Amino acid sequence: MITETERKLISVILAEQEDSTHSEEAARRWKELFEEIKPWVKELAEESTKRVMRRNSFTLPAKIYNDIQLLLPLQMPKEKEGMRTRTFGPYEVNYYFTNIPKGAKLRFGRDAQAALIAICNLAIEQGMLNPTFIRNYILKLLGKPLRKDLYDWLNDVLFTLTSTTYEIKRPGRGKDYFRQIGHLVNSVTWHGTGKNSLVSTELNPHIFQPLFATPKTQFYSLPRERETKDRDVEAFFSYLDTLQGLRTTYPVSAKTILSHKLGYSAAKLKKLGQGKVTELLTKVLTAAKEIRGVEHKISYPVETGRRKDPLNWQIVLKFTE
Fold it and tell me: The whole model's pTM is what?
């Protein structure tokens, strides 16, 4: 168990990381300090993650939850004059993307929000705005299997949070005018490359200081997604991960889902028969709705003979706004 003194020391050393980039000597000294406290940091990361995993939901102060909805959209914002822009109530929110690593993808959507909310819960448990987590632990916390594509997805989310500059504007004159520019996450540091390696984040204090709120503050409790052990549902969720965040609706054929996304051969589908295939399709679509909030609409062929075969169905997947 990490003591309060050890936790405070970890917080101080992690907070000094940005200053360590000013010179090679400062970087060397900071690295030496971090190596000394690394066992404490890893223990703190493990303890805090296990405490959050024991709960069925994430908890956030209402103000921070609302700010995340404002600043991290569920869909890719519309392009406008070299930036992305959206409206949210009386506000116009603009996004500028800089220093996106080659090969990385911008990640918006419900899963990106969940990753940030998970990091916020670790910050609460660790008592600091520069929380550290273990890569495979946070994927488990998000209910995701430990796969290379999902480690890459996590990196993309962190790149998006640090490389996106947001600008909030509220039109008006005098005191009614409001404008703010910043980042949700100021910096991310990877301490190694393995699945058990540590990642340190520095949350923007202007936004996230209310994490350490007084008991009178209103809190939101958000259901935490659990990892499913069903191979078909996992494969379908992986497919949804590749879609989410770019637009709200996606047309796709049932045959594409079953063959190309779930990996069933034509011979296997024929052996299962129309009844079992219908059950399989219903299972993954229902799980997507209940766990991910992804709605669907099925269109059937006009001809009665083709209508009964689920391989002829067309499906529109609809992501929540």
Answer: 0.67
